[in-house]
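hey all, quick one before standup. I had two proteins in the batch that finished overnight and I want to keep them in one place so we stop losing track of which output belongs to which input. First protein below, input sequence then structure tokens straight from the run.
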Amino acid sequence: MFETNNDLSNTTRRSVIEICNEHLADAIDLQLQAKQAHWNIKGPNFVGLHELFDQVAAQAGEYADAIAERGVALGGIARGTLQAVSRQTQLREYPLEAGDWRSHVQAMRDALATFGRGVRKAIDDATALNDADTADLFTEVSRGVDKSLWMVEAHVQDTQADAKPVERSALRGESR
């Protein structure tokens, strides 16, 4: 670990650097998976999904940069090589055989949900280490990922007209 005048303890800094590198791997993997979907999308929703997946890739790149820079600012080394990412990512492998647009949407939905879940854990972990700045960084990432997940999921969610109506009595717990 490199010397720094940051006032976090060495123990906290080591732990936070490890957290950053774990999620750096996921952010880089998410970026590459979004590009895979962007390049290979086909079907009636091509333009919208092509642009959306490119946007997700760009955002994931920004997350990766912010996460890597936080770890380095604390005295660490960012582990962002393909080999390091491949060893450490928590995301499932992207299904290269995904052909139809729904398969790409489902794969991106799963990747975003996994990444978001990990980022929320990082918020808790950084908070437990009394590192409010890292917790804040991951909170910002979490908000962005949740928005991207919403936009991707909207392509496969039922519309209100398609959804089965729920009777009011069922909502109140009443029986007929």
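OK second protein, same deal, sequence then tokens:
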Amino acid sequence: MNWADFVELCTTKTLLYTILRKISRADLSHLIAKIRDTIPVSLLILTLAGCGSTVTMVEPTIPAPRVEKIPVNVALRVPQQFEHFVHEENVLGKESWTIDLGRSNAAFFTQLFGYLFDGLTVIGPEDDARDFEFDALVEPSIDGFEFSVPNQSKTEAFAVWIRYRLRIFDREGNNASNWTVSAYGKSQKQGLGGSSSLQRAAVLAMRDAAALIIMQMDKATRISSLAGGALASPVGPPAKIMAADSESNQVQNDAEDDFGVFVIGGIEDDSE
């Protein structure tokens, strides 16, 4: 058994235990010495205990869009579960992933709405909206969060799908609109682990959502009609504009300081 074969077999703890039963004590001592010289102890412990990864999101930045602001004073109400959203999933029954979006959602919408509207007030889940002056109140939530890793897609890419819901109310609390936005981000695998690549894919998905919101929000929700304290008219079925997930609509653009980074239909970052 050579070293390359040993590393490959040690990808799961079940195979590792099988190897330990079959090789001789002398071979085992030799392999352990070789492992000690080349692999950090913490990594070896992780291999023996099973695979698990935690992705903690940093606050994303959004390039300033070159659009005119919507002439509305908006209150952004951030629900507690939205501000502390955590997604946990076992991939193929083996890899355990925890994605902690933390404050990134609140920071994302605060920055986005600061670019999009004439005025913005951020209120917490315990605040009474009647204590604030605004034309429209927007309350975001996450309807769905999905991701894929190379073991699933059989590629070298990580992908993230986020489905946001934006509930919009007039100054009296009447329901004005209910809009669902789906976004997609993709990033190539980088390094031995995948945490940074999955984090990057999530940031790109947020930017994809930002693009759709900037370009379509007023058309989809008619939020500008609430300017000056106007009340909402009766609302029909919830408005719903989905970002296309097809490969043909996914455009690569890694510019960090240009509005062109926003691509409706998904953002890929194949350069990494």
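Flagging for whoever picks this up: The longest strand covers residues 157-170. The chain has eight helices and eleven strands.
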